[in-house]
Amino acid sequence: MFQRYDVIVVGAGHAGCEAAVGAANLGSKVMLATMNMQTIAQMSCNPAMGGVAKGQIVREVDALGGYSGIVTDHTMMQFRMLNRSKGPAMWSPRAQSDRNQFARKWRNLLEAHPNIDFWQEMVVGIVVKDGRAVGIRTGMGIEIEARSVVLTNGTFLNGLIHIGEKQFGGGRAGERAAKGITEQLLELGFESGRMKTGTPPRVDGRSLDWSKMEVQDGDDHVGKFSYTDTPELKKQHPCHVTYTNKEVHEILKTGFDRSPMFNGRIRGQGPRYCPSIEDKIDRFADRDRHQLFVEPEGWDTCEIYVNGFSSSLPEDVQYKAMRLIPGFENAKMFRPGYAIEYDYFPPTQLTVSLETRLVENLFFAGQINGTTGYEEAACQGLMAGINAHLKINEEDPLVLKRSEAYIGVLIDDLVNKGTEEPYRMFTSRAEYRILLRQDNADIRLSPIAQKLGMQNMDGRMARVEEKQNAAKAIYKFFENCSVEPSEVNGLLTEKGSASINQKVKLLGILRRPHIGVNELRKALPKLQEFLSQFDQEFVDLSETNMKYEGYIKKEQEMVDKMNRLEELHLKDDFDYQIISSLSSEAREKLSKLKPRTIGQASRISGVSPSDISVLLVHMGR
Q1: Over 70: is that where the pLDDT of 229 sits?
Q2: Which of 100, 94, 106, 102 is CA-nearest to residue 222?
Q3: For residues 57 and 427, what is the distance between their CA atoms, to the nearest angstrom?
Q4: Strand partners, 362
Q5: Residue 214 and residue 7: Cα distance in Å, rounded?
Q6: What is the distance in angstroms between the CA of the first residue and the CA of the last residue of the chain?
Q7: Are the CB atoms for 506 and 475 separated by under 8 Å?
Q8: Are the beta carbons of 284 and 252 closer than 8 angstroms?
Q9: What is the full DSSP assignment across 123-166?
Q10: For residue 569, what is the DSSP state?
């Protein structure tokens, strides 16, 4: 009935879809197994992609040949570049998406791929022989053979939904939980834990008074996520902002005694940086109000997502409190918010390729690893799919360094440090973030994807080359072009910058605070004429490279020093127990995690700088 697949991906959320694409675009024959074909790539929580650090991840996924950026560009309703008031390392694209169009576009792309097949049924176990994953077992008892398996089960592993004192099994509202996989993995020797996440109520937009809320429009200059030729958004849908108040908080408190979060029924750890509304008013009792983002679910629906009002309180308490929010006085609720608990497996049980240490050719990606967020899941899925393909073809895994990508930071953090709460990416987690900007992900990563043999990279690489050549040409122009005082002193005075009294190079003017390319091109017709031949994306990249050249060079020097440790490889059978000079904790952690390099060893929690020195001495360094 079934052929033997190269890769079977279990779960069709953001991680599963990217895992299927990653393996299929390298030539593997892939089966995507899901409990429900109608919920492929469903946005279970907020209908948006990107955000702080997450936007960088989406662009990295796109640069590596993934589809999340393409799908987002085709289905977005609004685009905003966050953190524009800060330095370019912090700029992060975010898009409001049409939930239904997003899932439909993903499914269309997957179904159009000749290397991807589908099977709709619950997977209850992995077929393991001689310590190796060789297929899956479904609820009907069907075994489907594969050379490797990627688990991307999201919140479905023994999922338990909480609304007040009510609780019922489910992986998402209206969908049953997945049983069997956790139990089998525990029998195989894996460690598991419980985590919790939540979602806010959905309301009827027709019942809201929009005049009482602040309008939040998209950017005038609409950007994109994908580096490919995706459509430009012509019309944007506004979002809105409103706030809770003391009266809202008092009503919410009346339900605390029935809250599963406060009475101990929820055992799993929730996301620190995306807390429920009851958690916020408890932890920040001195705050009189909290911001809420009122976000549309799509162009063709009146359903609204109340971002910031995630809750597992009883539905009657949610409803009463909501109606005290400005603009929500007559709100009609489609469904209450809820919390969901689910099983995860501490990611220290994985190698840096996302393959499990206990079972060969078995990979984990997404919330099963303790992460939260569509973007974090998508990038893990892509990497797991790529590495599953590479493993069965006896090729070295793709491992991105912390200096190469936010994806590298995320996986390095998970595998070496683990996580006891839902892991979310922030720019602050990346020590080389001025190198890992959203505007240069294609330059950093597309050559890697092309070298791997990812499909359809020729056009991408042509654009990368065009972008690099443009940056060189623009730099050369600024470096060589001199400007007279009469040409720029008016602008300098307007910006509060010191005037010049002789000709100076344009590069020096650009590097002054508050002076940008857009202001200079308005003042200098010759600059405007020169820059008109280039895409704005290329000009923006060049401006950042020129203004921050010193910082970029300094950070690159730090990377080069660190890379010397990354080049010192450690063998899997290295016996740390014989090195008595290592601390006992270091011996235990190093023996368990088996780092690939000295650099990776240095980032393992419990391994001190003195332990690294001991290892270097032992290696003759």
Answers
A1: yes
A2: 94
A3: 11
A4: 149
A5: 48
A6: 57
A7: no
A8: no
A9: EEEEEEETTEEEEEEETTS-EEEEEEEEE--TT-BT-EEEETTE
A10: B
- Is residue 508 predicted with pLDDT exceeding 90? yes
Rounded distance between C-alpha atoms, residue 7 and residue 31, angstroms? 7
DSSP 78: E
For 200-309, strand residue ranges (E) read 202-204, 214-216, 239-243, 291-296, 303-307
Distance of alpha carbon 146 from alpha carbon 300, whole angstroms: 41
CA gyration radius, the chain: 26
Domain boundaries, the chain: 202-339, 458-552, 567-618
Find the mean pLDDT for residues 428-437. Answer: 93
User: CB neighbours of 242 closer than 8 A, spacing ≥ 6?
Assistant: 212, 213, 214, 292, 294, 325, 326, 327, 328
Mean pLDDT of the chain: 94
CA dihedral 50, 56, 58, 59 (to 10 degrees): 130
Predicted model pTM: 0.93
How confident is the model over 528-555, as a mean pLDDT?
95
Measured CA to CA, the distance from residue 369 to residue 344 in angstroms comes to 6
Which of 371, 375, 397, 374 is closest to 386 using CA atoms?
397
What is the CATH class of 567-618?
mainly alpha
| Longest CA–CA separation in the chain, Å | 84
Of the pLDDT bands very low, low, confident and very high (cuts 50, 70, 90), residue 273 is low
Is 90 exceeded by the pLDDT of residue 565? no
**Model pLDDT for residues 139-164, shown as the tens digit of each residue:** 999 999 999 999 999 999 999 999 98
- Report the Cα 293 to chain-centroid distance in Å: 20
Average the pLDDT over 196-201 and give the result. Answer: 93
**C-alpha 121, offset from chain centre:** 27
Taking alpha carbons only, the member of 522, 533, 362 closest to residue 8 is 362
Nearest to 94 by CA among 277, 295, 276: 295
Q: Are 371 and 377 in contact (CB under 8 A)?
A: yes
pLDDT tens digits, one per residue of 373-386: 999 999 999 999 99
Token reading at 340? 């969901």
Q: How many other CB atoms are there within 10 angstroms of residue 516's CB atom?
A: 13
> What is the rounded distance in angstroms from the CA atom of residue 374 to the CA atom of residue 54?
9
| Three-class secondary structure of residue 115 per DSSP | coil
| DSSP string across 266-281 | --SBPPTTS--HHHHH
Residue 184, classed as helix, strand or coil, is helix
The span from the CA of 467 to the CA of 538, in Å, is: 6
DSSP 8-state secondary structure symbol assigned to residue 187: H
| Fold classification of 458-552 (topology level) | Arc Repressor Mutant, subunit A (1.10.10)
Q: Which two three-digit tokens encode residue 231?
A: 């459509």
- Chain center to CA of 132: 29
| Per-residue CA distances from 289 to 105, 247, 277 (Å) | 38, 10, 11
pLDDT at residue number 621: 61
CATH number given to 202-339: 2.40.30.260
CA dihedral 564, 567, 568, 574 (to 10 degrees): 150
pLDDT at position 71 over 90: yes
Q: Rounded distance, CA 254 to CA 313, Å?
A: 10
Q: Could you tell me what percent of the chain has a pLDDT over 90?
A: 80
Residue type, 340: I
pLDDT at 610 over 90: no
What are the DSSP calls for 91-125, one per residue?
Answer: -EEEEEE-HHHHHHHHHHHHHT-TTEEEEES-EEE
Interatomic CA distance for residues 84 and 168, integer angstroms: 43
Question: Do residues 352 and 417 make contact, with C-beta atoms less than 8 angstroms apart?
Answer: no
